[in-house]
Design brief:
about 325 residues, alpha/beta, 6 strands, about 50% helix, about 15% strand, globular
């Protein structure tokens, strides 16, 4: 009996040791991928940063550069680590000193918001490098809840920033009311997000098309029934030669069944949203204020594009983002 107990304890200790070793290996793999992502960010940043990787500005020159902040944010999201406290706890306990000049969690939180525009410019450059010649896009929106409906009246997000405050909205595809924001995205048929925006939940999907017509031209955009509007379709065509292809509703006179090509290309952006919810956990929100939420959403979309770029470099299918880091 004692022999069996001793063997059981020995086996348990061996399992614990292997688990601890695995955790440390994961974080050192995290550091290795951080280095690779940092090099890619340097490649696509161009003249937006100086030789030290910082956006030129007055004041003290940070030892942990702006590019490193962007790369660390993208790497964390790519590894499905969306808690800053959890990230820094693991870095400081499992592999201390592995990232030189690492800043504190509070500094990271502040600088992540300030470098959001730099990260987005890098992401757009990567998206253009992956597939910059597309002429067919899919457009859609997805809800971004900030809290459960029962807590909406007590939610403090946006109380000091009314212009960017969340609101009530309705999602027809999920048949639900929610309190928060709406992510609008324009995705190529290859699965690359070319542009996106965040608005309050009560903003109609058609409002995002007003920005699209000034950024794109001579292309076709596939939308769902939420984008059905004859005046908007005519305005897009006359302004930028954009063909907005939206199926008619069943009770409309000119209704025809959607074509096979339409359904296939529309499925691409729905798959992208599913991957953002699954691997990058966009459905989960830890932010307390709108600027923090926008910075987190920007990092998730940038991480998604970076994973696609990794697949391109490694000659893998672009859509297998979950396996891109391995």
């Amino acid at each position: 009996m004692l022999k069996k107990l001793h063997m059981s304890i020995k086996f348990s200790n061996l399992v614990v040791a292997k688990l601890l070793s695995y955790k440390v290996t994961v974080m050192y793999n995290f550091v290795a991928k951080f280095g690779k992502i940092l090099e890619i960010c340097k490649q696509f940043a161009g003249n937006q940063v100086n030789e030290k990787g910082n956006v030129t500005r007055c004041g003290v020159v940070p030892t942990f550069s702006d590019l490193e902040v962007v790369a660390l944010s993208i790497t964390a999201e790519a590894f499905s680590i969306d808690s800053e406290n959890y990230l820094f706890n693991r870095l400081n306990t499992e592999c201390p000193g592995a990232i030189p000049n690492l800043i504190t969690r509070r500094q990271y939180n502040q600088r992540r918001k300030k470098t959001m525009l730099l990260g987005e410019n890098i992401r757009q450059a990567i998206a253009k490098a992956i597939d910059g010649g597309e002429t067919v896009f899919s457009i859609d929106s997805k809800p971004v809840k900030v809290c459960q409906n029962a807590r909406a009246n007590r939610c403090q997000m946006g109380r000091t920033d009314i212009d960017h405050a969340p609101s009530w909205g309705y999602c027809a595809s999920q048949n639900m009311y929610y309190y928060g924001y709406k992510l609008h995205a324009l995705c190529g048929i290859s699965g690359v997000i070319h542009s996106y925006d965040m608005t309050a939940a009560n903003v109609h999907d058609l409002q995002y098309l007003k920005d699209v017509q000034w950024e794109y031209s001579d292309c076709t955009i596939l939308g769902d029934k939420g984008y059905l509007s004859a005046p908007v379709q005519l305005d897009l065509f006359e302004t930028a030669n954009i063909t907005l292809d939206v199926p008619y509703r069943l009770n409309q006179k000119n209704w025809t069944p959607p074509t096979w090509a339409y359904k296939r290309f529309r499925k691409r952006i729905e798959t992208v949203f599913s991957q953002l919810n699954d691997h990058l956990m966009m459905i989960r929100n830890y932010a307390k204020q709108p600027d923090g939420l926008f910075a987190r959403m920007a990092a998730k979309v940038a991480a998604f594009t970076m994973l696609q770029y990794f697949n391109i470099l490694n000659h893998k299918p672009i859509g297998q983002v979950k396996y891109a880091m391995f």
